Amino acid sequence: MELQFSGVYNEFCDLKDKGLDLDSLMLSTSQLLKSGISHYDWVGFYLLDSQNDQLVLGPYTGAATDHTHIPVGKGICGQVAASRKTMVVQDVAEQDNYLACSIDVQSEIVVPILKNGQFVAEIDIDSHAYAPFTTKDEQFLSAIAEKLSELF
Ligand code: SME
């Protein structure tokens, strides 16, 4: 992992070791990621409500969003819930199935949190930069998602 990522990852592991409840850990993680990685401008969690086949907004850091409930399949978040695969959109203007939060957002990465292979939640990150994400972001966020899945 790159230096910037490994430093933040270590801080995340320290946070996790504190034994916080899941909501507090997700909130602290969103704060840590937004402040620690310069191209992360909005960081939040969406949790699966399987009874209603929708995602529900969980803890987040950044501007308030209208998208508090997202049907599975809708937008980038909903597509990841359906596919259980990370999605990187380097230019949101080119994505048809996209739910806009703010005109400042140019790119987005969404990483699933899987529990025993089942989708339970996801990490959603918006960036005001164009095409800022690399495989380093994917590796870093997947490692965090895997650790968080232990708490679901
Ligand atoms: N852009 C997302 C919606 C959630 S916001 O980014 C907070 C999407 O297309 O699913």
State the gist of this model:
This protein has 4 helices and 6 strands, in the order ααβββαβββα.
Could you explain the architecture of this structure?
The chain has one domain (3-149): GAF domain (Beta-Lactamase, 2-Layer Sandwich). 36% of the residues lie in helices and 27% in strands. It is built from 4 helices and 6 strands. A hairpin with a 4-residue loop joins strand 1 (42-49) and strand 2. The two termini are 25 Å apart. Bound molecules: methionine sulfoxide. Methionine sulfoxide (SME) is lined by residues 42, 44, 65, 67, 70, 75-78, 98-99, 101, 108, 124, 126.
Order of helices and strands: HHEEEHEEEH
Query: How helix-rich are the residues, as a percent range?
Result: 25-40%
Helix run count: 4
Order of strands in the sheet with most strands: 3-2-1-6-5-4
Radius of gyration: 14 Å
Strands, count: 6
CATH level-two architecture: 2-Layer Sandwich
Bound molecules: methionine sulfoxide
Structural class: alpha+beta
CATH domain topology: Beta-Lactamase
Distance separating the two termini: 25 Å
Which stretches are low in confidence, meaning pLDDT under 50 for 5 or more residues running?
Answer: none
Shape: globular
Spell out the CATH superfamily: GAF domain
Q: Kindly give the count of domains.
A: 1
Strand residue percentage:
25-35%
For the residues shown, what is the average pLDDT? Answer: 96
Top CATH class:
Alpha Beta
